[in-house]
Automatic annotation (TrEMBL):
One of its GO terms (molecular function) is DNA-directed DNA polymerase activity. This is DNA polymerase kappa. It comes from the Eukaryota. Pfam families: IMS, IMS_C. GO terms for biological process: DNA repair; error-prone translesion synthesis.
DNA sequence: TACATACAC
DNA sequence: GATGGTGTATGTA
């Protein structure tokens, strides 16, 4: 294992960025070493590749990309909508003072999200809270309140489903819509009566800055906000939206703003995949349209860094960077060696990125892996938890038994009645992760708590016996090959949320004022 | 089948 | 001083 040489004290003041020797950093360093060594190995392979091989690779790449490009549907309007700094924004509705102060949601060990004032300090989601506090000592960290976020998400979904009844939520704060059929039917555009806000008070949306030259302010005034007690200016106005997709999406975002008091960003493109990339570009409170035009697509894609594309995470991104590949354009310069550098599935992901198309639709549309006997082999459900590292076996056994139990409870909540396989996950103090599993000869009913606990314990003790006495910092239990209760019992009617396909209820073809409709938030803050 | 790695949110 | 939890997909042997 790589160990840095002992630090030498040269100056009385600490250097700004101590590399910090810790098990976590050691683990990260190990990982970097492994990555580099693998890259070195691949480079040596490439140096021995024959020109014929490389020519073949290049042809394959071109053919696959050309093939994928035939799947471009340039006329489609795929839309990705994403609430900005979602948890933080919702917390600001409850406690408006945080709109201007650096604040994050999460815990000391991990932040789920940070508001924009905090981001100015370099605070980011995924960062441990204690590190964020070093960057920004005045940072306020609030605990997650998922009940509240679910309420906000529900309101968000309600607005979106008026624009596309088949809207697909991807988590609480983002959604995909298809507006391909919508845009043409309003030659004069749309208009909407609303109230925009300004002033000290930050409780309400849309904001005055959201008003454009196309809009008309009917009247205005100032009051004291009943929520935060600060000065609030209001502008009764008619917002007018241009007839194309741009206006439609601005209208959608304004409707989200008035119904939830939350800002969101949107990306519009000819594929969902690209729409998702686009929604980040003008975040927060903005939108970006990638025109449905082959040249525009190619230009956009080629200039984009690979790490912006979903599926290219830190590992792939760093690995490719070692080969000198940072953007899609770089990728094209390495066509002939790509096959050596990435796995088969990554290869096809990369070719799809170049082509700018979505995954081909799933053959088994809308279906689970559920078989006739009600076993869903694909899904898993489990519980895991991190604690102060310990090697005390009695403690560990007690923990794994309690996790086995809570995983049962969580499975029950998902309508599971029996399990066919059990996984135990162990993370050592060194951050190395291991899993052990036990497949059962027949389905074990969730009522058999003792058995599932015993098996979990056995897997753990066997693992410890094999590894020797080491500190453990995380344990988890997960069940697979789930036997499901009959669907009618479980289905809580998510599908029934989808409303009628009316285009934005109150959003009508361009015509003048009705009366002022209430801009009241639909999020009930208690 | 059993385990490890990568990724999204 | 200290770096998350849940679930899916995929690679390898």
């Amino acid at each position: 294992m790589f160990k840095p040489p002992p630090a030498v004290k040269v100056s009385p003041s600490r250097p700004m960025e101590p590399p910090g020797s810790s098990l976590f950093n050691d683990h990260a360093a190990d990982k970097r070493e492994r990555l580099k060594s693998n890259v070195g190995y691949v480079k040596s392979m490439i140096s021995r590749a024959t020109p014929a091989q490389q020519a073949k690779n290049e042809k394959e790449f071109n053919d696959v990309v050309a093939d994928y490009k035939t799947l471009r549907n340039l006329k489609d309007y795929c839309v990705h909508v994403d609430l900005d700094a979602f948890y933080a924004q919702v917390e600001c509705l409850r406690e408006p003072k945080y709109t201007r102060l650096p604040m994050a949601v999460g815990g000391d060990s991990m932040l789920s999200t940070a508001n924009y004032p905090a981001r100015k300090f370099g605070v980011k989601s995924g960062m441990p809270g204690f590190q964020a506090k070093k960057l920004c000592p005045q940072l306020v960290i609030l605990p997650c309140d998922f009940k509240l976020y679910h309420k906000a998400s529900w309101s968000f979904h309600q607005v979106l489903s008026k624009f596309d009844p088949d809207v697909r939520m991807a988590g609480l704060d983002e959604a995909y819509l298809n507006l391909s059929n919508f845009v043409a039917d309003a030659p004069d555009g749309y208009s909407m009566n609303t109230v925009a806000y300004d002033g000290e008070c930050q409780c309400n949306r849309p904001r005055k800055d959201d008003i454009t030259e196309d809009d008309e302010v009917i009247s205005s005034g100032d009051i004291t906000c009943t929520i935060c007690g600060m000065a609030q200016l209001y502008f009764n106005c008619t917002m007018n939206f241009s007839p194309g997709i741009d206006g439609m999406i601005r209208m959608l975002r304004m409707e989200v703003a008035m119904r939830t008091n939350l800002s969101c960003s949107a990306g519009i493109a000819s594929s969902y995949y690209l729409a998702k990339v686009c929604s980040d570009i003008n975040k927060p409170n903005g939108q970006f349209i990638l025109p449905g035009d082959n040249d525009a697509l190619d230009t956009f894609i080629l200039s984009s860094p690979l790490k912006l594309f979903p599926g290219i995470g830190p590992t792939s991104s760093n690995s490719l960077a070692e080969f000198g590949i940072k953007t899609v354009a770089d990728l094209l310069n390495h066509k002939k060696n790509l096959r050596f550098m990435v796995s088969n599935s990554q290869y096809y992901l990369l070719t799809r990125i170049v082509a700018g198309v979505d995954c081909p639709p799933d053959e088994t549309e809308e279906s689970t892996n559920e078989t006739d006997n009600g076993i869903d082999s694909g899904k898993t459900v489990g519980t895991e938890s991190t604690f102060t590292p310990t090697s005390n076996q009695a403690e560990l056994v007690s923990l794994i038994r309690s996790f086995a139990k809570s995983a049962i409870e969580s499975a029950k909540g998902d309508g599971v009645t029996s399990v066919g396989i059990l996984f135990v996950k162990v993370k050592l103090g060194s951050y190395d992760v291991h899993t052990c599993s036990q497949k059962f000869n027949e389905q074990v009913p969730l009522t058999n708590v003792e058995l599932l606990q015993n098996v979990s314990e056995t897997l753990l003790t066997k693992f410890i016996a094999k590894q020797g006495k080491k500190d453990i910092r995380l344990l988890g239990v997960r069940y697979g090959e789930l036997g499901m209760a009959p669907l009618s019992k479980v289905q809580t009617g998510l599908k029934s949320f989808l409303n009628k396909p009316t285009v934005g209820g109150r959003c009508v073809k361009r015509r003048k004022l009705e009366e002022n409709t209430d801009p009241v938030t639909v999020i009930d803050l208690e």
